[in-house]
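User: I'm putting together notes for a lab meeting next week and I want to include a structural view of one of the chains we've been expressing. I don't have a solved structure, so I'd like a prediction I can at least talk through. The sequence is below, exactly as it appears in our construct file.
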Amino acid sequence: MNVMEHTFRQDTMAGIRKQWTDGMLEHFIAVYPFISNPELARWGEVSERTILRKAKDLGLTKDKYFRISLEGYTYLLEMHGKCPFGQIAQKAKTSRRTIIRISKYLNLNLDEKQKKKLISNGIVKMLRSENRKLIFGLETTSNRPIGRDRSRHEAAQLLKECGYVVIKGSMTAYYNDEMDRYSDVEQLAVANGFRLELWP
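Assistant: Thanks for the context. Below is the predicted structure for the 200-residue chain, given as structure tokens.
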């Protein structure tokens, strides 16, 4: 009896020999480089030996430097494009570099609207944090203007990030016919004294 026959017999006798469906194979190929073999074995309800053999048959290799749990991987798929990589990394209990690397491997690309939304949300979150530090007399870490004119500066920054041309001296934000306009950002800008005009 050769090694492969012995392995097949062991798996069969242990009751863990099972049929791999197309869905299982697709998922296995996607996550194998980043998920540990013991966790994959629990997921597939097979032995680690079966995982190794299946990976060898498919020509799969492990990423040497980046790891994530199945739970973290699922969270990444759910939250990609909805919150910053750093926040996903914190929830997934891994590094931001790992999240970025896995996202690139899976071709999870952000469109321009998602990028602008993430930037806007990040700026708002940072400004709130810095303002709390200011209130309690702590040293701020950002070079962005914080304090009395915080809302105005925040509105101007959001306008710029979304593609508007902002002239602070005249409190005017210009847009053009070809760009995407954001009603929530424009409302915030108007509430802080900005005028919106079509670029001449």
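A couple of points you could mention at the meeting. The first helix runs from residue 3 to 13. The beta strands are 165-167, 172-175, 195-198.

User: Perfect, that's what I needed.
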